[in-house]
């Protein structure tokens, strides 16, 4: 055979197109990629269907004439939903502020301080707590936790509540039952703590060992190594955990409904009997007696909650993407 002649490549060899090698697609790869694509498309279709349903069913709530609406009772929609938005965001932000430092501390202890055996046991416990139903937390908060906190609330109101600036939060007549917005926020903080801790723990464990060893080799203490190597690397992951916990707190229904006796008011005081309520709790309490346009009004409040939650997730994604290059995650 002449040297100028070329032997044709076998049929199962990778195809060469303009200098680029294309790998052969096996049946398993095709099945996996197709399944992943179908799952992604299904999620988008489901989200779109939910959004369309909420928008269509909410339209009657925005009519000018609300005299026949037993929920709005002649007022417009936005004055009705405004206090609900405030109560939802206020209780969720309080829960996030209370849970974030505790979650980061527990995650750091599990990942960098606890012995291996203890860290494994604590990791299992955290994962199990994340699976506890919200109604259990609600019962605990309403029947046990609120009564336990009530004497502390009395002391807090008589001391901190007398400070001119802090009385905005801790002033007023203390609730005799302990069922306050602060109790609801504490219950929400306990609920979102396992999820936030699990995410932060996994992110801390992914810190490159070379970064940690380099900091220790330069004479840094363990805490200095954490502040210089672990926390900057895990910043995006910590924000993701915080936003995931905030998303669960925003949509929580049963725990807040069972703990809090709220009303349509805007108040910042944390210890009084007059408390704002949340959108999910209002829907749960008002839906059994609703009919006609009242149901549409409650669905419209659900649409507002959907938009708020979507905005929170979008902001979290933006923060994570902005911090990814700085943290070394890429």
Automatic annotation (TrEMBL):
Where do transmembrane segments lie in this chain? 30-57, 77-110, 117-140, 152-174, 181-205, 225-246, 253-274, 294-316
The entry's family comment says: Belongs to the binding-protein-dependent transport system permease family. CysTW subfamily.
Localization per record: Cell membrane
Functional description taken from the UniProt entry: Part of the binding-protein-dependent transport system for phosphate; probably responsible for the translocation of the substrate across the membrane.
UniProt xrefs under InterPro entries: MetI-like, MetI-like_sf, Phosphate_PstC, Phosphate_Transport_Permease
Predominant place of localization? membrane
Q: Which Pfam families match?
A: BPD_transp_1 (PF00528)
Which keywords does the record carry?
Answer: Cell membrane, Membrane, Phosphate transport, Transmembrane, Transmembrane helix, Transport
Q: What is this protein called?
A: Phosphate transport system permease protein
Q: Which Gene3D superfamilies match?
A: MetI-like
| Entry keyword Membrane | yes
Q: Which organism is it from?
A: Microbacterium amylolyticum
Start and end residues of each ABC transmembrane type-1 domain:
85-316
Q: How does it sit in the membrane?
A: Multi-pass membrane protein
């Amino acid at each position: 055979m002449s040297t100028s002649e070329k032997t044709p490549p076998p049929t199962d060899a990778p195809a060469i197109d303009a200098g680029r090698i294309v790998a052969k697609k096996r049946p398993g790869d095709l099945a996996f990629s197709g399944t992943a694509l179908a799952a992604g498309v299904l999620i988008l279709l489901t989200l779109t269907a939910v959004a369309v349903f909420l928008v269509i069913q909410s339209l009657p709530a925005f009519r000018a004439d609300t005299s026949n609406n037993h929920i709005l009772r002649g007022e417009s929609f936005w004055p009705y939903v405004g206090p609900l938005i405030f109560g939802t965001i206020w209780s969720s932000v309080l829960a996030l502020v209370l849970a974030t430092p505790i979650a980061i501390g527990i995650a750091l202890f599990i990942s960098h301080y606890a012995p291996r055996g203890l860290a494994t046991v604590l990791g299992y416990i955290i994962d199990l707590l994340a699976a506890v139903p919200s109604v259990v937390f609600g019962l605990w908060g309403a029947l046990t936790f609120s009564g336990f906190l009530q004497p502390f609330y009395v002391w807090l109101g008589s001391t901190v509540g007398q400070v001119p600036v802090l009385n905005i939060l801790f002033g007023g007549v203390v609730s005799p039952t302990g069922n306050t917005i602060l109790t609801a926020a504490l219950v929400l903080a306990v609920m979102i703590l396992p999820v936030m801790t699990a995410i932060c723990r996994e992110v801390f464990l992914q810190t490159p060992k070379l970064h940690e060893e380099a900091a220790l080799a330069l004479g840094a203490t363990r805490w200095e190594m954490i502040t210089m190597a672990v926390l900057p690397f895990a910043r995006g992951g910590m924000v993701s955990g915080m936003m995931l916990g905030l998303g669960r707190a925003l949509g929580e229904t049963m725990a807040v409904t069972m703990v809090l006796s709220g009303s349509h008011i805007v108040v910042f005081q944390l210890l009084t009997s007059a408390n704002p309520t949340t959108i999910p709790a209002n829907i749960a309490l008002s839906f059994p007696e609703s009919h006609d346009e009242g149901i549409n009004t409650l669905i419209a409040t659900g649409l507002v909650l959907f938009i708020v939650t979507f905005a929170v997730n979008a902001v979290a994604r933006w923060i994570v993407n902005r911090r990814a290059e700085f943290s070394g995650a890429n």
